[in-house]
Amino acid sequence: MTLAPFVILLFAAFVGYAINLRAAQAIRADGVRLHSLESFHGLFSLLMVIVPVLTLVLIWLAVEGAVIDALLMASLPAGVLDGLGSGAIQLIGAEIRSIAGGRVFGTPDDWKLEAAERLIGYRQASSWLLIVVVTGVSAGIVYFARGRVASGFRARQRVERITLGLMIFCAVVAIFTTVGIVAALTYETFRFFQMVPVTEFLFGLNWEPQIPIREDQIAAEGAFGAVPVFLGTIVIATVALVVAVPVGLMTAIYLNEFAPHAFRKTVKPVLEILAGVPTVVYGFFAILVVAPALRQFGASVGLDVSGNTALAAGGVMGIMLIPFISSFADDALSAVPQSLRDGALALGATRGEMMLNVLFPAAIPGIVGGVLLAVSRAIGETMIVVMAAGLMARMTINPLDSVTAVTVQIVTLLIGDTAFDNPKTLAAFALGMMLFIATLVINIFALRIVRKYREIYD
Amino acid sequence: MTDTTPSEGRQPRASAGEAVRNSLARRNRKQMVLQGFGIAAIVFAITMLLILLTSIIGNGYHAFTQTHVELDVFIDPEEIPEEGLPRGDYDDVLAVAMGTHFPDVDLSDRIATRELTSILSNGAQYILRDKVVADPSLIGQTISVKVPVSDPYDQLHKGLVERDTEEQFRRLDNDAIDRFDRLDDLDLVSKPLNTGLITQADSRFPELAGLKGALVGSFWALLTCFVISFPLGIGAAIYLEEFAPKNRWSDLIEININNLAAVPSVVFGLLALAVFIGWFGLPRSAPFVGGLTLALMTMPTIIIATRAALKAVPPSIREAALGVGASKNQVVFQHVLPLAMPGILTGTIIGLAQALGETAPLLLIGMNAFITSAASSPFDSATALPTQIFIWADSPERGFVSRTSAAIMVLLMFLITMNAIAIYLRSKFERKW
């Protein structure tokens, strides 16, 4: 049933295309010169049908549910909803919907059964109405478009203007996405800060969102202090970078200057595999192999390594970031002009000296840009830490301890619970806001460094 | 020249040369050290990759087979009456069938019977039920069925349970192992290919859990993602590359797209949760919402790839087309775009492969629910491959470790295939101008 309007729409569009094409061909067959090619007359009809009617169908489907719900609630017998809270009313709505879906539990009240009948009726009426409207509007547009076919009609210009409009719309979707992210985060964060003071969130040292908080205790001291969570992210990201930066840089230096061509050609794609492995796989690798190995190693040297040690999560994340850093450093090294290499070698430097004293310093800005992008990756990375890091927020910088991270808290706070009215879920959005701002600032900064540096040599 | 005897005045020069020559070994050694570090780094990275792959494959291959036991079951009309077929005591019938091989077990003793039937998977009775419901004439006959064994015995048969560890540290006591060995000696135990891994949906019992629901969910999500992000991405890229005037607005859009490509995926999940589910009221756990979210994430990738592909088409093509009287639109849609298509498709497939492996945003919109049937439309609740991996990785049963690894192998297989197609497309259709 939901597919029917789309099928009708497509059918109408093609019919319109064919009718206009025929009409234009007929005019031409009479020996009259057309302003636009026949196919443009056809396309004019096609686009005129698809754009407005598709918009109509999508809007219809988007608001249909809300309208039907409102109608349903309004049609319930007077008095049954009196004195019920919004939660209970929602529950009744859900029960009626499930009855309408054929899942009847127990023996519901008669008025609920009737309401379910009505709901089915509304839904059917709505989809039939939509089909009728789509058919009618499409037919009207096809008729209108057919009327425009004439030798002097500038169909090409019309078609091109419509396609340009469509393309601009596509480009603007990217802006809408950003606006959507900012709006959603700001709105929910704002609501969070109405319940929990900003200063407590930013500077509080105690993070215990899982503790149920009584109404009058919402701003209970220490419950939503995010500092330990931020600290955990910093610890894990640091471990990741300690692994990824030296390994990535050394890899890039070797591949860029010393490796034989064939070696470079095989090793680079193999390293890229590391970047293509989904993060959930790394997370599983961390709990299956790395964490037990670290634990065992720690036990053998007499160290107490926690099961969710930051070392496991950070180390595995570091492995993931190796190809990221090495390809950025490789690009930066390759971007250094050949004249600098030649000059250094001509002065008698060994290739190693040329690399360390000339190329590497010249490439530093590009490398720093790459490392900064890796930092933003590391703090935004979710699955590895969700699976391998801990849940308890602690004030510690010891990487052997179990620490938590911003992304871990976002996921655990939101899994399974969707009530948007308590500080627990809203806290996730506040954390998300922090994450978004941090990564955005780092990215803009890093891209600027990379771009500026490129300009120096171009 | 070398024959001339060095004069007194040249002496210090020779010693400078000497100094260089002497230091050369040291400098070369330094270079060797640098190279050594480089090779060590590469070896480290590749070793890690190998450990990752071998640990996944080493654990995962176990899940591609499943231990079954073959039983001759008498479909007792007393227990399973023809009327009201789906009901009936299939469990008892199976217990009787097991009992024929264990005459020493008293079937009226419930605890002993339960211990005996614990060899069989919890799903065995349903397999039998489906068989009988499909063909009621089986009632009263003795049929031979092959049913999966439960997880601990599966592990035992695959050699993953150490028989010589002390009894109290094992999940199976000595009697249980003896019973299973007796079945094994009777040649009733087999280990066929585990087709259930692909044909069954999720289950609480590892021996019954399969990936069908996740595969279907991922399919719907990717389809939605493709249908939305492909046209939008191409449209946006063409506009920005070919039509957009160089002004503040197009700059803004461009910076925007570059930044979107670097926004952490979990933030897209927050967007989807607040906007799609919270404000628009779309259903939770639906692959459609997942696909919508993934589309927003994939769009920047497609836009960037499309712009690169459009840029690679030489201006001479455009000029030639314009020269014979094509309009700007005709140039783009009839000449430039078809020539750029291989590059665009390559970028799109790589973007979709990334989307297939994406987990965090799907977790936030609830695609980690426990769902035991495959979704029949993109609006039904479902899981996706990566979220299924996440769920199984969290499950405590021993059997889920190998299931998780097997699911990862399936996911990686899809990713490798998609990337191979992309590489093939690129090498086959790439044109050097």
From TrEMBL, chain A:
Pfam families: BPD_transp_1, DUF3708. The chain crosses the membrane at residues 42-63, 128-146, 166-187, 223-253, 273-294, 306-329, 358-379, 426-447. Its main location: membrane. GO terms for cellular component: plasma membrane. Keywords: Cell inner membrane, Cell membrane, Membrane, Phosphate transport, Transmembrane, Transmembrane helix, Transport. Residues 230-446 form the ABC transmembrane type-1 domain. InterPro entries: MetI-like, MetI-like_sf, Phosphate_PstC, PstC_N. It is found in: Cell inner membrane; Cell membrane. It comes from the Bacteria. This is Phosphate transport system permease protein.
TrEMBL record, chain B:
Residues 1-21 are annotated as: Disordered. The keyword Transmembrane helix applies. It comes from the Bacteria. It comes from Roseovarius gahaiensis. Belongs to the binding-protein-dependent transport system permease family. CysTW subfamily. Keywords: Cell membrane, Membrane, Transmembrane, Transmembrane helix, Transport. It is found in: Cell inner membrane; Cell membrane. It is a multi-pass membrane protein. CDD domains: TM_PBP2. The chain crosses the membrane at residues 33-57, 219-240, 260-282, 288-310, 331-353, 406-425. Pfam families: BPD_transp_1, DUF3333. GO terms for molecular function: phosphate transmembrane transporter activity. GO terms for biological process: phosphate ion transmembrane transport. GO terms for cellular component: plasma membrane. Residues 215-422 form the ABC transmembrane type-1 domain. This is Phosphate transport system permease protein PstA. NCBIfam families: 3a0107s02c.
